[in-house]
Amino acid sequence: MGEPVLTRFTSRGVTLLGDESRPGGVTFAFTERTGGVSRGCYSSLNLGDACGDAPELVRRNRAILLEAIGAGGLMDRLVNPKQVHGDRVVVVRSGSPEDVGEAQRQAREGADAVVCRSEAVPVLLCYADCTPVVLVAPHAFAVIHSGWRGTITRISAKALNVLCQEAGCTAGDVWAYVGPHIGGSDYEVSCDLMERFRQEFGDIIEESYRHLDLGAAVRAALLDAGMSPDCIVDADVSTASATDRFFSYRAEGGHCGRHGAVAYLPAQNRAQME
After folding, report:
1. What is the DSSP string of 26-93?
2. pLDDT per residue as tens digits for the range 131-142
3. Is the pTM of this model over 0.90?
């Protein structure tokens, strides 16, 4: 598949970061905060349904996003977990109404990663400083929410293992895209938490004294799980330093919307590639 890249582009008024080559047949994007209908601290493309925004506006924003990535009309098939800062992975194996409904039910019970190998099933996870990760395999993908709790338990590596099992591939066949998240220079943590990360990942996670680099920890977990360094790309932008583009829970005092990572397999892509 070459090497992964992230480029910034606009679709239907929505600013996105993605890989327009659609590796593995997967369409995915990390959203920015513009292009939606929400107002005030949620302005404007707030995709989170648990941060206090009006539900009807969140639903409209999600519909706008799905249209922007070519998944219009698939709202009823959207899998959007209740994120609980754990390491549970939900798997979508079939696009039947029953299987999609079951995946949606499991996701809403609580999960922080979704692996999908079914066509026409969009997956959305939401963020406002935590680390979004999209893993792409041939005809399958994973979308991951990696806050500090998920990162230290290596949720990205766990989702990678599940993805490889479901796609029948190895870690060497997978590309990883690490989306916008709070950067190490903006993320000061306690000495105790820093020490826990240092014991798990070594000194690579320390941007400076008590400043934690979550992206470095995610990368280390993926490398330890067998991925090639050339197959991991980071958006390299800190949400807390770019609140004109992204929501930041820390920089905005806890009152903000959520941007997202979204992915799906268009039905026609598999037919073209097989």
Report:
1. -EEEEE-S-SS---GGG-S----SSSS--HHHHHHHHHHHHHHTT-TT-GGG-B-----SS--EEEE-
2. 999 999 999 999
3. yes
